[in-house]
Here is the input.
Amino acid sequence: MIDACKPGKLPLAGQWGVLLGLSAGFYLFLAWIGVPAALLLGAILAAVVLTVSGGTLRIPPRAYILAQGLIGGMIAKMLPSMVGGILFDNWPILILGGLSVIAASGFLGWLAIRLRILPGTTVLWGLSPGAATAMTVMAEAHGADVQLVAFMQYLRVAIVAAVASLVARLFGASLHHAATSVTWFPVLDGLSFCETLALVLSGPLLASRLGLRGGALLIPLVLGLVLTSQGWIAITLPPWLLAIAYALIGWRIGLLFTRPLLAHAARALPSILACTLALIALCGGLAAVLVAVAGVDPLTAYLATSPGGADTVAMITASSHVDTHFVMAMQMVRLVAVLLLGPPLARFIALKSKPKTNF
Here is the structure.
């Protein structure tokens, strides 16, 4: 009787029902306590629970690739509104600051590979200070251990959120954790919505035709930035559609977390924590340099160089007396740089970190 109630004993329709119910429950709880990326993390947790309980669901590859296109379109929509004109006024500082954070993560990744703390390019993607979802998607496209990368990325998001909140509180900010209300089904402009669908579908189609790894995400992102900057389209992505994309990506990640893989992640936890805390410390040092050289106030500098969790940083800046535009501009500049430089940088560092063999 007990075995019959296990997810693995249910038909596929029943397993989908369990997965949807768990995802909704985890999302509502995480949103209520103010955890960032609650939709994605809720889907991952639900899928992990289902898998370790014996579930056998898998996400079709085409659905996963289409979800990547939606995420690329979302980033393209977000970047111009976040950055605005401040990029042109402060571009040397923003670019140098963003690249310095990437260099710090690359150095730590190189060191971790040399010391054999974590395997191969996995640590490079896991430490990449960009959007966690984008980094996880691109890591899988480039052959890294996607489960361990996801574990590293989202653990770092949680730790960075906690540390950034603590720093903000020390400077007098008050972070509100109440979940904001979301209009899931807004009134849509039909033409803009159709143009957006054409944009996000172009990524998977072109990436498949060109054999471009990570192209399902990058092509809509780059095309979207060009088209929106010229005023040719207005990207329209309703919350319900983004929720589907986040759920598909979260389920894809979570359903791969078998019991042996969870045991592997648990064994690697001390090393992952050490790398994460070292990255946060290095970024804190970069913030101090920004204060001394550019005259930026300490909290603005710290939030601008904070390694990842842009949505968390945005929430903190909203309740703090900081330069919000500067903070988000540097976050977005770094995100674009990581998306463009991540693959070649990972290959370069992995090659240079291999010990030389003498024959």
Observations:
- The domain at 13-175+187-352 is CATH 1.20.1530 (Na+/H+ antiporter like fold).
